[in-house]
């Protein structure tokens, strides 16, 4: 079921393109039409439309969207101490990693010139947390903690309710643990529209973060500009680069951990060894049968996954940079020496005991990572996504006087005499 | 012509909303339709469509889009030494400011755990430079220099040709001065599509930056996701906060320097003093008549500009943060003491001798700034726009062993047993 394909530097691009073609979204006109209608309705009818769409899409009748303190406390009480301790340990690791991303304002003095960069937190953030089968408390931690470190004042969570009209208690507990300020029961494009434009209940936010299905992704793209967004997330991916020092069972387990996410997930192994490839394939088949989500994993493995036997290591590294995988595992003899050559990857897991789930929950780096090749230009979610900067400029009269002729001349070369005049007027006799 | 409006903390929001309503783009369905057709044609017909659209929109017949070395050299030779020296001085200041934004990779060692963040330049960047009346060599400097500092390998410039089929020599000279790698004669949505998807001549890039008209802005939004973009730029804005220590002629000149950009530009003055407001209004009327672009400035001043007489300084500062202006000038007795209170602004100019044109060309900070209130969530263009990050994670067997139970339990709480298995398989007897 898991394809094995032999490639060299001349033909790998064709094979990769064929395998990864599902990463290119093309037929989304219908989805976009629905998303646009939903957004217009939320802007026009506010809370009423939000409740109506929750009934239409989530099959739940609600009479209000706000999650009250009482419901949060009930969830907290219902969750085991063991789970709360794990949340706490994960939170500490995530906090400690992200704290290192904090950026200070800076200022630079040069005679009578002062230049600087002022860092300010974004005031309000909306955080989308999926519900249903993909209801992950880790999503709450990974989105909320960098926002808190940045100093965001108002952190709003939206998440679709379950069939019983309630929010998953693990999600509510994680939200309580990290100090989310407001929680609303709303999902899909309607919740994104509510965050961007506001309703009677929900005050609009400045930026929306968090993963979601295709409707959420398209709605985020649609409202981008009115608010900022973190990224447009696609299906999850792993790429493993392994030599014969790797354990085939480890590689197989890691390919499957990605594949169980959804049918569109992609798991790719790059190796130089025929024998290793065959062993991993056998281990995947053997491990898959006992998984709870074997059906999902099986489809992802069959349709979007492959083992590539690559001619040489240089080509394998070229392939990694071409794939620009969300998760990259390097299971080779000395994985650190590969690091300088890796240009495009969301997160890089080094060695035989750094599997991808370690990063999903616990190690500290963010699990919201660029997918579908966007690691060529995007970064993991981090503190910098929750701040913005302002330039600061001060010149004294003497300092401006020294450069006034140059600025006036530049302005006139651009045909802007009012710009030149703004300098000139300051030195009129 | 320049309105004077008295406001207090209870009614300023209504007045601001009325004034700034042109910042909200609504009726763009026709433009989006054109942009989508152009993008599809470029993807289908490549260079041929690019040349056809250059004829349709720019009224120029070209037989190829690439600007050859010879044309660049001719432009360089045609430009005065004086202008080249100014470019050089501006370049030095811009380089020196942006160098301070450079971010290093970091790594953190903790017993047998290694965590880090690897910084890599984005490999290829497309830079849009407007042509025609808004052909500004400063745009080239402001976009190219942070890319160069980041370490971008391939910096591609597109710019629409003039009626003579040539590119403005100041733009070409600025491009030569900063080391742009490839230059193409193409503008509008067609050039954005070519950068995102490629043609026979133009290899696609990873990210597109630079300002442009509404077609360029909408095309950038459309291709966002396939490539990254810097921001969606709107009309230019200035907000001046001035007390009676300010010179009315300076304030008027600065309001006009913004207004001459285009009819949609917005110039706003906030002051507590009736008398100062009247003096600025009179100075605007007096200075406007002698400007080359008086007609444009007059429209911007009449339609999108105002002087607000504000009840107290606290309200004035609230208004600044609500406007989130692209450019903010603080011309008060002690402008530095205002800085902690300013949350939302692209660039902050302090004091009586730091007019906005100083930042446009010369001081060093970037002139590509968030417009239309997006300073609430966006930053000036900078080196960080040309890099991306990868998380780096290494755990030894012993380190993973210590936390394996917690990770497995977390995974099972999320219903993902293949994730748990990826840990478990590493510790099988």
From TrEMBL, chains A, B:
Gene3D superfamilies cross-referenced by the UniProt entry: 1.20.5.1300, Nitrogenase molybdenum iron protein domain (3.40.50.1980)
GO terms for cellular component: cytosol
Pfam families: Histidinol_dh
Molecular-function GO terms, alphabetical: histidinol dehydrogenase activity; NAD binding; zinc ion binding
Cofactor(s) listed: Zn(2+)
EC number(s) recorded for this UniProt protein: 1.1.1.23
UniProt keyword annotations, A-Z: Amino-acid biosynthesis, Histidine biosynthesis, Metal-binding, NAD, Oxidoreductase, Zinc
Binding locations of NAD(+): 128, 190, 213
Family matches, as InterPro entries: Ald_DH/histidinol_DH, Histidinol_DH_CS, Histidinol_DH_monofunct, Hstdl_DH
Pathway: Amino-acid biosynthesis; L-histidine biosynthesis; L-histidine from 5-phospho-alpha-D-ribose 1-diphosphate: step 9/9
UniProt key word Amino-acid biosynthesis: yes
Binding, substrate: 236, 258, 261, 327, 360, 414, 419
HAMAP family for this protein: HisD
Family: Belongs to the histidinol dehydrogenase family.
Protein name in UniProt: Histidinol dehydrogenase
Species name: Geosporobacter ferrireducens
């Amino acid at each position: 079921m898991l394809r094995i394909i032999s490639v060299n530097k001349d033909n790998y691009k064709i094979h990769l393109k064929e395998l990864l073609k599902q990463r290119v979204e093309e037929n989304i006109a219908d989805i976009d039409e629905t998303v646009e209608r939903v957004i217009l309705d939320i802007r026009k009818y506010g809370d009423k439309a939000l409740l109506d769409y929750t009934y239409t899409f989530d099959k739940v009748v609600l009479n209000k969207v706000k999650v009250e303190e009482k419901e949060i406390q009930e969830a907290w009480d219902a969750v085991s101490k063991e789970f709360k301790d794990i949340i706490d340990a994960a939170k500490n690791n995530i906090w400690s990693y992200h704290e290192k991303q904090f950026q200070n304002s800076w200022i630079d003095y040069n005679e009578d010139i002062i230049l600087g960069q002022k860092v300010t937190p974004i005031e309000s953030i909306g955080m989308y947390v999926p519900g249903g089968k993909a209801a992950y408390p880790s999503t709450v931690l990974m989105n909320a903690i960098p926002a808190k470190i940045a100093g965001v004042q108002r952190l709003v969570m939206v998440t679709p309710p379950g069939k019983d009209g309630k929010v998953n208690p693990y999600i509510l507990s994680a939200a309580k643990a990290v100090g989310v300020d407001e929680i609303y029961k709303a999902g899909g494009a309607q919740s994104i529209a509510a965050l961007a434009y506001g309703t009677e209940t929900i005050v609009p936010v400045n930026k929306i973060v968090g993963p979601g299905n295709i409707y959420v992704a398209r709605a985020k793209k649609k409202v981008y500009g009115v608010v900022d967004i973190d990224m447009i997330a696609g299906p999850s991916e792993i790429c493993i680069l392994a030599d014969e020092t790797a354990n085939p069972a480890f590689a197989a387990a890691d390919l499957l951990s990605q594949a169980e996410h959804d049918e569109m997930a992609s798991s790719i192994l790059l190796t130089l060894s025929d024998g290793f490839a065959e062993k991993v394939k056998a281990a995947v088949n053997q491990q898959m049968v006992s998984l709870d989500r074997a059906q999902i994993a099986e489809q992802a493995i069959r349709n979007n996954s492959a083992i590539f036997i690559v001619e040489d290591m240089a080509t394998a590294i070229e392939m990694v940079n071409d794939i620009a995988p969300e998760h990259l595992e390097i299971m080779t003899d000395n994985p650190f020496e590969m690091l300088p050559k890796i240009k495009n990857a969301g997160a890089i897991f080094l060695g035989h005991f750094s599997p991808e789930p370690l990063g999903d929950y616990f190690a500290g780096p963010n699990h919201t990572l660029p997918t579908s090749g966007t690691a060529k230009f995007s970064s993991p979610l981090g503190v910098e996504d929750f701040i913005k900067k302002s330039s600061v400029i001060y010149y004294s009269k003497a300092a401006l006087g020294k450069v006034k002729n140059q600025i006036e001349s530049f302005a006139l070369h651009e045909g802007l005499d009012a710009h030149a005049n703004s300098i000139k007027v300051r030195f009129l006799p």
